[in-house]
Amino acid sequence: MMQETIAAIATALGEGGIAIIRVSGPQAVPSISGILKSRQKLTEAASHTVTYGHIVDVDSGEAIEEVLVTVMKGPRSFTAEDVVEIGVHGGLIAARKVLELVLRQPDLRVAEPGEFTKRAFLNGRIDLAQAEAVIDLIRSKSDRSHTVALKQAEGTLSKRIQALRHSLIELLAHIEVNIDYPEHDVEEMTSSYIKDSCGSALEAIRKLLQTAAEGKILREGITTAIVGRPNVGKSSLLNALVQESKAIVTDIPGTTRDVIEEYVTLSGIPLRLLDTAGIRETTDVVEKIGVERSYSAVEEAELLLLVLNRNEPLHGDERELLGKLANRQVILIINKTDLPERLDVEEVRTALPNSRIVPMSVLQEQGLEDLEQAIRELFFEGQLEGADLTYVSNARHISLLHRAADALNDAVSATADGIPIDMVQLDVRAAWELLGEIVGDTAGESLIDQIFSQFCLGK
Ligand code: GDP
Ligand code: ZN
Questions:
Q1: Which of 226, 231, 282, 285 to mutate to test the pocket of ligand 1 (most atoms within 8 A of CB)?
Q2: Which ligand is nearest to the CA of 233?
Q3: What is the pTM of this model?
Q4: Residues that bind (6S)-5-formyl-5,6,7,8-tetrahydrofolate, according to the entry (predicted)?
Q5: Would 389 be classed as within a structural domain?
Q6: Looking at ligand 1, which residue's alpha carbon is closest to its atom 18?
Q7: Average pLDDT, rounded, for the chain
């Protein structure tokens, strides 16, 4: 069925010291052998070894590029087919030239986006959730989201889903027996078995869904706005966060011209900081608009860091702002603890009794850890560190889990209502199938095509 051999540049398109061309399929080794000049013939190379040589233009006999060629025989390869990877030193131009020569070989065509990963899936080497994790890996913006995607690629989510499905299959088998041998009078036992079994499956699904919110945060970051009057220390805090983050800080041009997003990572929690342009320009008129400007960022943010100056009494603007934040996730930063207290902290506490207060001296680099802790407590239940990192973060998985839970709830109430057991069986079976869609066991072809079309070329 999978007779075609495919090839593509597998490394990022752009400047780079080396590039890799990946070839997969039955013709991979003989085709590349045909255009490789090397001491040992590639067709005789052992699996998982590297061969040094030159790619030659067979028509002119000219050596085009010095290469290192890795042979990985199926099924011990990424696609589970024979794979050849050609490493070229010359970057993209050289890679394109080599790819062109590779594609001149008979029975070889250029790979579609995601086709290597799709083959790995179709050949049973990875499941659908793992394939989706490969997309997440490519796109992950923070260290932690990278770790989560990596775990998923390794199959931790899939294992849990398969365990759940296994328990449902056992339940289905039990129900089946009851349908086949009703005279055995196991009806009573079966209904309590259904209740227990669906109950524990529902609990497992609930736990997975609970991780969804956390997973989303890890993937996309907490949308955060730093707000406050001029001169309270917003720019200083932003700079401290950026410095603390150490990880990659990316400027992403926003949809509107004057909104800039910035990503920082605090102990692995990614924050997507809004409107940092306004904070950065300390002397700009923009700053003078102060609280006024803050309102637009306030609306969009999931987390507000409201900075107050401990050395100044509460300003009318701030009182007004506090009044509008009652239902929001706010951390009150009382900055400048190195200076005498002239702010009525009690008034602030009374205005927002449910918000955490973090005293800081950004100038003296004090309080940043407490701020991290406050953010962690606000968005993550329990320990973040040491958790097993099975996070459901994919919208498709979340919706399937919800639908599976609905089906199981239907099964439980149908049993309670004394509805015939073969009807209950349909609900359990539906749950089993919905869970199967997550890992791809019961996924249709169009869904699979749609998922793999999201990949970039060469993956
Ligand atoms: P913004 O207008 O809210 O962005 O405030 P800035 O970050 O520009 O800070 C205003 C002034 O307050 C600057 O001179 C900072 O050096 C100073 N500042 C910031 N944080 C502290 C602090 O913790 N203690 C003291 N004493 N000064 C601070
Ligand atoms: Zn500023």
A1: 231
A2: 1
A3: 0.54
A4: 22, 85, 125, 459
A5: no
A6: 233
A7: 81
